[in-house]
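Appendix B. Chain record.
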Amino acid sequence: MSLLQIVVAVLLAFIGMVLLAPIYINLLQRLGFGKQIRTDGPEAHYGKAGTPTMGGMLVVGVVLFLAMALRVEDAATLTPMLTLVGVGILGAIDDFVNVRTGIGMRGRWKLVWLTVVALLAAFYIWRHFDLTGINIPFLGQFEVAPFLLIGFIAFVIVGTSNAVNLTDGLDGLAGGVLIFSFVAYLLVSLVPVPGVKLEQPNLAIFCALVIGALAGFLWFNVHPAQLFMGDSGALSLGATLAVVATVNGQLPLLAIVGIVFFATIMSVVVQVLSYQLRGRRIFRMTPLHHHFELIGWAEEKITIRFWIVAALAGLLGFSIFLGSVNGFR
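Structure tokens predicted for this chain:
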């Protein structure tokens, strides 16, 4: 595996997105696939109504086409690729329903679909990679009963998918944070861990394709956005990130690498619990980025500051991983 191969993968995906996105945006506009904005969100977002959505399907399409063209399908990449497709279809249906009704799919049906995909992915990874436990940095491998391990992996996949979806509330926010998260796991894929896994060059190239496609998407998604990711991108890329972390054998590291996603979903959980138990809200509005909007931060400032946190979290996560690896040697 050479650095050139990774750079080429990033550039191919980026160029593909930049060339195809204008055509895709025009097609979505012709079909009337404009985003319906919820009336219970910040008023500043009302002007975004009608912006083409379902941009995530273009990201999924570019990544899958190039992955097959570059022949990176192997045991390590099969599960994240199938997850990207399986959850991407769910998100596309939800985007379509949202465009037509302004509401989207019922939450319970999305949760069922996500759970089924997550369980299938967790079972395949457990069986194919002979997982027997969870690898905690600096502490080593902790044995876990198979049904508990599969359940935990599935839970993290579903949780990460929803966390990324909740983060996708400002122009460029989720896409930029995802890039830094995938960069961290791309680097992890290139480092052999004795007793845990070998290098996974094809998984690194897959991550590079996702990074390039997301960079191309951001070209049109930064404020003011010409194209929204939609659930087709947010749900599928969140689930895929968790699968990549699992295949890498570094799932617990996701709590650090994906700290922005974790903080976002926890802000919603804490807000709901606080209101139910105390009758009071902690944040002005959730998810977390809306709280900062309502206290006066500009949208671009929130996005860039979250990007900075994500970049530092990715660097910290990879540093912890390297320190853990050196501890094994």
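Further analysis of this model is presented in Appendix C.
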